[in-house]
């Protein structure tokens, strides 16, 4: 039976004692919702008696207790009724494999056959129809679509919400253009559940109703692709001038106050806006440290719009993170526009690889991939094209294999020309550049800003003024941009794009082209090209074995994962292998360039032209990675540091090579800062000891004499927070890491009782994080808390943060990226633990090279480099706690150097004025309990 023949859907959800039905786990609750004629006609739920104890974590998640099951019916008593509902129906569930395996297990135990009808998985459907959502968890989907979900993780409520979600998705399916439905059909044919039948039925009904996209959709058909209609082409930059008065705009009765329900007067915001405006008008550079809560984004946006309208040039706003780019575009610009009462043109501009190439995608659709991830990705893209205005991959939540496909489909300079691309007038990348040209502000990232400067790509339209937000990252980003990296895996990703192992890949398409065009290339020639590429792959592998032997094994005694090297001293084994890599690489490129030239002697079909462009792109990429590798192993420069990194096993195929300039100040001074008439650099952390001098020196700003502005936070830290340092904590230098790690784990577990909320723990060492996680984990079942650890289960940062926020009582252990860039306001974090002062590892290659340079010049690396870096990082970590004026929380620093070391005062002086206590752990835990009990008294 198929979905087409089924006249109803039965949505099922089960709660269980675990996830192994074929062993000891059993159902403890079942929920069922029936849909007929696209209406919910019946709902049902019941506890289920079973001979199993409910694990503590299941009870915490669901609220179901053992006593709830005492008088509950067994599944066998309900089986006949459930089967009656399922007769002739399509079974639907969220993660249907999970629910179905438990249902079949219970049916078998009750003496019935397994369910044989069609099934649908609403997770798979949601991924297809809403490819832009960040999470496909049922609760997240319910929140997104405003579906009432009274009892998450209870079978009846989950089943009903899943049913309502199904109805929404069926409506979405029937709203798709007929051409999209037709193109979806082959890509859903091999999906894991009945999606193909759903699409087939939709196509049939659309044909029966003679629906047309012209009447019903905001869609246009471009060369066989249904694409959202492009908004009117941007006109010249608006000539509407605006007056500038920071007090009138940000004041108590100002324009912003009249449109913002959450308005707060902030003196620092007014001061910053005035200073930014003065810097723009006077064509000067400005550094602004704006503490959390200042409102810095609007403080620089308002004068940016003013100067843009006056100069008829857009102002460039560069951020480090994509999250801030989107926040500015989606939240801050609309608010500014509303307050000003005039349209504000803001464009987000990213690197070319962020944008989909429509021509490449069109030609990809001519073949059906055998990979599930590629099939799902292609289907997602077809749906997404009917909705996206940007074509930007950041809008998408692709399956892991989908990102490999994106490498084939992203925009590239070879094909992106009016002559080569039939979609050029609809090109997402060209549209983004055009939008930027006619904008008041261009929102981009640090990396693209550096690319535009140092490589003279002229991607960003002409501008006079720049705002660099998150400017504390500028030095590191510039170093990455001016440096280089390579790895064996980097080459393998390119090698795999040649598709030597694929039966229907690049080589089979080339074989067809040779045959159709009667080209003077034989199958033997193609076979030689495969052998040539395989030889190149072999030599790359041999090269990295040689590098591993030469660099890493010689330094094995210190057991580090990073090892510096000098390209002049790599030895004959490396150089001889490199010569073979270089020679074969040139042969590969020469052979394929000859093929391309002959192929282009006669007019090609669009599909053939795309194939030839793909080969050209592969050749370009191969030349690029060989140039990079050359710079890493043969071109020694005393002003740069070279090093390798590998995995814990030290495998050659996991070895990575890096090159970075030791000091980028001179390059920035000569090539970066002079290109803008005015540049504003802002962040919450730019000063050390209340001075900007460290940042000025690192960035090469001395000769520009920038004005500096330090704005304190408007938050009342004396009431909102306390800083607690335990005086009896073990010291690593005396007792080693073992006792220290145990003490950290013990403190975290004891603190849970006082906090009764979320705790964020920041580490400087991943190994220490891992060992602390393993120590705490066995205690968690008795503590009624959830434990999350960075890198423990492969979840990325955003997913970990979401999981953390979704649990009322949770501990999150993080390192590296968790010290900044995560916004956890209100009760999202009630206690922050900084385990160690965040000094850079002394063997960090770039730090070590900088320190040696300072020492050679008679300086003190610890005071001039280690301390400033650690202080800035410490301020970033501290800033995770108090994010709004209503937040309250505790900061524990478990490093006694904050009090006992002479330099500890520099860290303390970097913080806002906050009550500080240095006492025993027990006293601090009592103080923590008092702090949160006072919170309860205040609420009363």
UniProtKB/TrEMBL annotation:
Domain of life where this protein originates: Bacteria
Catalysed reactions, semicolon-separated: ATP + H2O = ADP + phosphate + H(+)
Key word Nuclease present: yes
Pfam families: DEAD, Helicase_C_2, RNase_T
Gene3D superfamilies per UniProt: P-loop containing nucleotide triphosphate hydrolases (3.40.50.300), Ribonuclease H-like superfamily/Ribonuclease H (3.30.420.10)
Record has Protease as a keyword: no
Keywords, sorted A to Z: ATP-binding, Exonuclease, Helicase, Hydrolase, Nuclease, Nucleotide-binding
Motif mapping: DEAH box: 469-472
Domain Helicase ATP-binding, residue spans: 255-530
Necessary cofactors: [4Fe-4S] cluster
Residues given in the record as ATP binding sites: 290-297
Cross-referenced InterPro entries: ATP-dep_Helicase_C, DEAD/DEAH_box_helicase_dom, DinG, DinG/Rad3-like, DnaQ, Helic_SF1/SF2_ATP-bd_DinG/Rad3, Helicase_ATP-bd, Helicase_C-like
Protein EC: 3.1.-.-
BP GO terms, sorted: DNA replication
Residues annotated as domain Helicase C-terminal: 746-922
SUPFAM superfamilies named in the record: P-loop containing nucleoside triphosphate hydrolases, Ribonuclease H-like
UniProt function note: 3'-5' exonuclease.
NCBIfam families listed in its UniProt record: dinG_rel, dnaq, PRK08074.1
UniProt record similarity statement: Belongs to the helicase family. DinG subfamily. Type 2 sub-subfamily.
Name of the protein: 3'-5' exonuclease DinG
Gene: dinG
């Amino acid at each position: 039976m198929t979905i087409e023949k089924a006249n109803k859907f039965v949505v099922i959800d089960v709660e269980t004692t675990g996830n192994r039905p074929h062993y000891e786990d059993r159902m403890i609750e079942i929920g069922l919702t029936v849909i007929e004629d696209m209406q919910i006609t019946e709902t049902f739920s019941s506890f289920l008696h079973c001979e199993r104890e409910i694990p503590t974590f299941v009870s915490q998640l669901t609220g179901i207790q053992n006593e709830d099951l005492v008088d509950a019916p067994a599944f066998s008593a309900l089986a006949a009724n459930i089967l009656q509902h399922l007769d002739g129906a399509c079974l639907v569930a969220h993660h249907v494999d999970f629910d179905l395996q438990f249902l079949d297990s219970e049916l078998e135990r009750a003496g019935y056959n397994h369910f044989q009808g069609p099934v649908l998985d609403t997770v798979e459907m949601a991924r297809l129809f809403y490819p832009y959502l960040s999470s496909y968890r049922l609760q997240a989907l319910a929140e997104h679509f405003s579906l009432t979900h009274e009892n998450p993780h209870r079978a009846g409520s989950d089943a009903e919400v899943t049913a309502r979600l199904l109805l929404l998705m069926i409506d979405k399916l029937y709203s798709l253009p007929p051409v999209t439905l037709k193109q979806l059909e082959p890509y859903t044919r091999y999906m894991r559940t009945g999606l193909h039948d759903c699409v087939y039925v939709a196509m049939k009904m659309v044909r029966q109703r003679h629906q047309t996209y012209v009447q019903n959709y905001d869609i246009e058909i471009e060369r066989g692709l249904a694409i959202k209609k492009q908004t009117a082409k941007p006109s010249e930059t608006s000539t509407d001038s605006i007056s500038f008065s920071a007090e009138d705009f940000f004041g108590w009765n100002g324009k912003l106050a009249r449109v913002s329900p959450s308005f707060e007067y902030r003196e620092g915001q007014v001061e910053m806006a005035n200073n930014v405006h003065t810097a723009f008008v006077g064509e000067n550079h400005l550094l602004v440290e704006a503490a959390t809560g200042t409102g810095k984004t609007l403080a620089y946006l308002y004068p940016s719009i003013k100067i843009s309208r006056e100069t008829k040039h857009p102002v460039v706003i560069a951020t480090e993170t994509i999250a801030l780019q989107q926040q500015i575009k989606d939240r801050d610009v609309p608010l500014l526009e509303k307050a000003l009462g005039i349209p504000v043109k803001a464009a987000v501009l990213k690197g070319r690889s962020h944008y989909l190439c429509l021509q490449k995608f069109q030609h990809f659709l001519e073949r059906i991939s055998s990979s599930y991830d590629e099939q799902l990705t292609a289907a997602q893209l077809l749906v997404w094209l009917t909705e996206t205005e940007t074509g930007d991959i950041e809008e998408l939540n692709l399956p892991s294999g989908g990102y490999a496909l994106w490498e084939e489909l992203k925009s590239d300079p070879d094909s992106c020309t009016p002559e080569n691309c039939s979609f050029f007038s609809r090109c997402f990348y060209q549209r983004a550049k055009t939008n930027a040209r006619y904008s008041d502000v261009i929102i981009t990232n640090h990396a693209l800003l550096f690319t535009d400067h140092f490589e003279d790509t002229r991607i960003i339209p002409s501008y006079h003024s720049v705002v660099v937000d998150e400017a504390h990252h500028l030095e590191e980003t510039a170093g990455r941009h001016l440096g280089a990296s390579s790895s064996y895996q980097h080459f393998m990703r390119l090698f795999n794009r040649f598709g030597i192992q694929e039966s229907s890949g690049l080589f089979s398409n080339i074989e067809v082209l040779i045959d159709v065009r009667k080209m003077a290339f034989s199958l033997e020639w193609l076979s030689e090209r495969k052998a040539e590429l395989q030889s190149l792959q072999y030599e790359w592998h041999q090269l990295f074995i040689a590098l591993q032997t030469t660099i890493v094994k010689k330094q094995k005694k210190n057991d580090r994962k990073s090892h510096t090297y000098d390209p002049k001293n790599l030895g004959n084994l490396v150089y001889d292998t490199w010569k073979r890599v270089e020679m074969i690489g040139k042969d590969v490129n020469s052979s394929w360039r000859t093929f391309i030239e002959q192929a282009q002697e006669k007019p090609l079909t669009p599909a053939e032209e795309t194939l030839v462009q793909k080969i050209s792109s592969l050749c370009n990429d191969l030349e690029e990675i060989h140039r990079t590798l050359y710079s890493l192993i043969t071109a020694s420069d005393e002003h740069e540091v070279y090093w390798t990194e590998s995995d814990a096993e030290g495998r050659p195929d996991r070895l990575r090579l890096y090159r970075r300039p030791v000091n980028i100040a001179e390059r920035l001074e000569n090539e970066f800062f002079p290109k803008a008439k005015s540049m504003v650099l802002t962040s919450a952390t730019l000063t050390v000891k209340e001075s900007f001098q460290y940042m000025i020196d690192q960035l090469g700003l001395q000769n520009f004499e920038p004005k500096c502005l330090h704005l304190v936070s408007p938050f009342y830290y004396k009431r909102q927070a306390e800083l607690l340092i335990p005086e009896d904590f073990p010291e690593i230098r005396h007792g080693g890491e073992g006792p220290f790690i145990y003490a950290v784990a013990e403190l975290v577990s004891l603190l849970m009782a006082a906090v009764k909320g979320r705790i964020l723990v920041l580490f400087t060492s991943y190994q220490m994080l891992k060992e602390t996680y393993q120590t705490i984990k066995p205690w968690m079942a008795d503590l009624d808390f959830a434990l999350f650890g960075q890198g423990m289960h492969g979840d990325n940062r955003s997913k970990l943060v979401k999981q953390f926020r979704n649990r009322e009582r949770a501990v999150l252990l993080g390192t590296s990226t968790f010290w900044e860039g995560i916004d956890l306001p209100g009760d999202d974090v009630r206690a922050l633990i900084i385990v160690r002062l965040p000094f850079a590892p002394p063997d960090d290659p770039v730090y070590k090279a900088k320190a040696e340079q300072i020492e050679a010049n008679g300086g003190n690396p610890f005071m001039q480099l280690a301390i400033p870096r650690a202080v800035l990082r410490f301020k970033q970590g501290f800033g995770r706690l108090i994010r709004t004026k209503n937040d309250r929380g505790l900061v524990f620093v478990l490093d006694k150097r904050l009090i006992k070391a002479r330099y500890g005062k520099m860290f303390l002086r970097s913080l806002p004025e906050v009550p500080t206590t240095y006492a025993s752990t027990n006293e601090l835990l009592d103080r923590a309990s008092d702090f949160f009990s006072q919170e309860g008294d205040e609420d009363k």
